[in-house]
Specification:
Blueprint (H helix, E strand, L loop, with lengths): L8 H25 L6 H13 L6 H6 L8 E2 L8 E2 L4 H37 L5 H12 L13 H16 L11 H18 L4 H15 L3 H26 L5 H5 L9 H10 L15 H10 L1 H23 L22 H9 L4 H26 L1 H4 L9 H10 L3 H4 L8
Antiparallel strand pairs: 1-2
Length: 426
Amino acid sequence: MGTSIAVRWRDWLRPFLICLVAGTALALHWTPLQAPVGDEPHYLLMADSLLRDGDLDLANQYRTLAPELDLHAQDYWGDGRLYPMHQPGVPALIAPGYTLGGRGGATAVMVLVWSGMGALLLNWLRRAVAARAAWLAWAGMMFTMPMFLFAVQFYSDMVGAALMLFILYLSGRGDGAGAPLAGSARWLALGVALGALPWMEEKFALPGLFLGALVLWTGRPRGRDLVAFLLPPLVMGVAFAAMQLAMYGALVEPWRVETPGLWRWDRAPRQAAALWFDQEFGLLPYAPAYALALPGLALMFWRRETRALAAQVVAVFTLVFIPAAAWFDWHGGYSVPAREMVGALPLLALPIGALLDAPRGWLRWALWAGYGALVLWAVFVLLFGLEYPAFRLYNTADGYGNLWQALSPHVGRDMAALLPAFLRGG
């Protein structure tokens, strides 16, 4: 099942270093121009509380460090303690960097995690796709929106995506890349990754349950391997429940239960379409190459040898995407495009790579040229947005994409009038 990672270190080091250089360049450009917004400053306050106070009571952080912020915390016990509405996984992850270098150190941690995810993604792709097609699909995803931007943003989505990729990679049976761990160490790593998912955000619990069942069904661990796999999520699950009870007096934050209208299943179809096509928060206007994932999935289902893998991709993607489409804040508030899809987007690199790998002769070159044109458009849009990220990459759910309004004078067309708008007019 596994080979030593030292045997194939170049397969990991090369994409990691490419991502590290690109992510560092983005961080150096991004940090002076764009302050943390949305949930990000609250994650930083949580990291500060873990380091300074050893707890998640944010009362003194909001009072002394960020009195101007709207609270993302509540006094659940009526004694002045303010417990956050976010999970502590990302704050705990960035805390070492934060203590060494503040926001810059925390950003460095996220760049490292993103780079590791990039190396993991490429090696996962190469199990089912030839090297050139895998590199093309990988680059078209990692260095366009939204994935590239999440190298420097403090959100759980990219970390959750990395954990799910890690589980799929270690549980797979590919030959080309091999698994870097074997025996009980492999099962222990799978269990730890599985147990960590809800600590990032509750939305990863459902795909985590599916992945856990998938690992048990396909791997069928026995004896010590079974214990190594089941013990970490059991211990981490009990600890998670104890934390919830200590902070909120319930297993689920009361606001998630008591606030009406959080789930809008009647609007889910429209919001699902918006996640793909909306000019503010949709994926395809900013990264149209993702459209190749659908024919790629059809191809994978048509081929017997990739059918099971395609089903896994669809299942995990659906368990992330459908709840996002039904959530009241499907667009992620004041955020960059397609934020709520980031947790599952890396999975779509596989069907894109499978499609790029399929044709031969001039058909392959024609497909690659078309794919290249779509990726170049995405890169152009990304670079244009990065010039003034606060005014071009972030939107306010008013129905008008800031980037398209800024681009319109340069192309002589009203881009905001041409592209779909799902939020215009309320």
